[in-house]
Amino acid sequence: MYQRVVDASCAEFAERLAAKLSVPGGGSAAAYVGALSSALCSMTAVFTVGKPRYAEHERDLERILGEAEGVRLRLLELVDADASALEPLTRAYALPRTDPARAATLERATKDACAAPMEAMELVARTIDLVDEAQRKCSRLLVSDAGVAALLARAALEAASLNVFVNTANLADRAWAEATEARCDELLATYVPRAEAVEARVMEKIRGAE
């Protein structure tokens, strides 16, 4: 019986990833890294709200905080959703090739396995939007945290895409696969450069202060 990853400690999660277990795997790790990115985005806002120097951004930062928290909580749910989707896929691959239901079962399970990493990509893209805004409005003492959030978001986005592509490559329904891949490509093309730009601006602020 699968035990929820989000109920484990960080050390236990890492131990499970390192173990000879089918779950959790890369998709769960990607979602978790995305959740860490959203958490850091929240951190930049929560420590800035209430500071008179940044009063003009108070409402925006409160909005960023609320949205980032919602994204973080959903990404944590996807850590387990990805792991749960992998079990039916593993069972489908284990069916005898002579089983007439194998192809349809495998196709359905493969499509289902795409759901969590696809949603994770959408949520991480939203995190990058929020971090981009946060690094311009948060306290200068927190810009490095915004930079780390951007870097983690980029990693999570690309990592989640790998977990989509590895499944769409095996689908017989090429129209569905290509539409899914096109959305992945769109998110990558838009948000990887945006995350890199946030990191570059943060680095400029930090190194420029020397």
Layout of secondary structure:
Blueprint lengths: L9 H9 L7 H21 L11 H37 L7 H36 L5 H26 L5 H35 L2
Helix pairs in contact: 2-3, 2-4, 2-5, 3-4, 4-5, 4-6, 5-6
Largest sheet: none
Task: Give the strand content.
Answer: under 5%
Give the domain tally. Answer: 1
- Mean pLDDT across the residues is 94
In angstroms, what is the radius of gyration? Answer: 19 Å
CATH topology title: Four Helix Bundle (Hemerythrin (Met), subunit A)
User: How many strands?
Assistant: 0
- Secondary-structure element sequence? HHHHHH
- What is the general shape? elongated
**Judging by the overall fold, what is the CATH architecture?**
Up-down Bundle
Unreliable stretches: none
Number of helices, where a helix is a run of at least 4 consecutive DSSP H or I residues: 6
In CATH, what is the homologous superfamily? Answer: Formiminotetrahydrofolate cyclodeaminase monomer, up-and-down helical bundle
* Structural category: mainly alpha
Which class in CATH terms?
Mainly Alpha
- How far apart the termini lie comes to 54 Å
Helix content: over 70%
Oligomer: single chain
Written account of the structure:
This protein is mainly alpha-helical and 210 residues long. It has one domain (5-208): Formiminotetrahydrofolate cyclodeaminase monomer, up-and-down helical bundle (Four Helix Bundle (Hemerythrin (Met), subunit A), Up-down Bundle). It is 78% helix and 0% strand. The chain starts with 9 loop residues before the first helix and ends with a helix. The mean pLDDT is 94. InterPro entries: Cyclodeamin/CycHdrlase (IPR007044), Formintransfe-cycloase-like_sf (IPR036178). Residues 9-185 form the Cyclodeaminase/cyclohydrolase domain. It comes from Olsenella absiana.
